[in-house]
Design a protein that fits this description.
Number of domains: 2
InterPro entries: Epimerase_deHydtase, NAD(P)-bd_dom_sf, UXS-like
CATH topology of the largest domain: Rossmann fold
Pfam families: Epimerase
Organism: Legionella quinlivanii
CATH superfamily of the largest domain: NAD(P)-binding Rossmann-like Domain
Order of helices and strands: EHEEHEHHEEHEEHEEEHEEHEHEHH
Shape: globular
Cofactor: NAD(+)
Radius of gyration: 19 Å
CATH architecture of the largest domain: 3-Layer(aba) Sandwich
Protein name: NAD dependent epimerase/dehydratase family protein
Structural class: alpha/beta
């Protein structure tokens, strides 16, 4: 099988690439390295079935040929991370909305229509309740800068649906909830790698807001397994499907757990959102997926608990702190 991964040097993209190379498939990754890191593909970049193209999707001269070659496309190229989203919303529009449409235009021109996975986000739910795929979406207030990301991912889904209905492109639209695991960086605001670095260095563990907000964290290796199941499930085509873990934990409890597993002397401190992000910010109090669609369509089962992932990440950080 021939697989194209946009954003292939990113956190999830690099794990997808490694997974499919291990299964004997050919993989092409394209990444402009804006937020992706070349270090993420070091383990397999010399693999005989792997090709890396350092370029922007919007200007990539080999896009049409590679799309025509591919059997499956995972589109993950995007601006990600709250710090980046808040301070460069125009890049979010270019990297998320315009790039997605550009990719689908190229797919439409190809004779063979590859299965196309447009990776969306739980951010499309805003502060909606229930968080199942049929939920009404509440994305206001639109004046908050971080809404740019939510709306960009929802727009990607709308573009995907349009090409599915009008052009018969087999599109799958997974909504990925909070994902953690090896290779994730805290540089752009991701909470778990930031907590682990702070705890392992005995620095203050910084909780934004009051810490009562809850999240559910899914190991990236489970996310990859779920995505693989979806591309092999014809009934998933033309659907938005939540992927994540439905076990909730408060950010305060996450900080305590990280501190405990790290044997850390860190203190836990709370920082107001205005100080953390430097702009008006309204957090979502709860984010936990309804997984009924995923579990109905596939045989998916979680293999990693939060505790197992945290212990694994802490061990890896202590072995190589510069990669944290």
């Amino acid at each position: 099988m021939n697989i194209l991964i946009t954003g292939g040097c990113g956190f999830i993209g690099s794990h997808l690439a490694q997974y499919y190379l291990g299964k004997g498939h050919k993989v092409v990754c394209v990444d402009n390295l804006d937020t992706g890191k070349i270090e993420n593909i070091n383990e397999f970049k010399q693999h005989h079935s792997f090709t890396f193209e350092k370029t922007d999707l919007l200007t990539w001269p080999n896009l049409q040929d590679t799309v025509s070659w591919a059997d499956v496309i995972f589109h993950l190229a995007a601006s990600v991370g709250m710090f980046k989203v808040l301070h460069d919303p125009i890049a979010v529009i270019n990297n998320n909305i315009i790039a997605c449409n550009h990719l689908l235009q190229a797919i439409d021109k190809a004779q063979k229509k590859p299965i196309t996975v447009i990776v969306s986000s739980s951010a499309v739910y805003g502060d909606s309740k229930g968080l199942c795929e049929s939920s009404s979406l509440n994305l206001k207030p639109l004046t908050n800068s971080h809404m740019t990301y939510s709306i960009s991912k929802l727009t990607e889904e709308i573009i995907g649906y349009a090409y599915f209905y009008q052009k018969n492109i087999p599109v799958i639209l997974p909504r990925i909830f909070n994902t953690i695991g090896p290779r994730q960086t805290g540089q752009y605001g991701m909470v778990v790698p930031r907590f682990i670095k702070q705890a392992c260095e005995n620095e203050p563990i910084t909780v934004f807001g009051d810490g009562h907000q809850t999240r559910s964290f899914c190991d990236v290796r489970d996310v990859v397994a779920a995505l693989d199941l979806l591309i092999n499930t014809p009934a998933s085509i033309g659907k938005s499907i939540n992927i994540g873990n439905n076990r909730e934990i408060s950010i305060n409890n996450l900080a305590e757990l990280t501190k405990s597993y790290s044997n850390s002397n860190s203190t836990i401190v709370h920082i107001p959102y205005e100080e953390a992000y430097g702009v008006d910010y309204v957090d979502i109090e709860q984010r936990c997926p309804n997984l009924n669609t995923l579990l109905t369509l596939t045989s998916f089962q979680h293999k990693w608990t939060l505790e197992e992932t945290l212990k694994d990440l802490i061990t890896k950080y202590k072995q190589s702190p510069n990669n944290g």
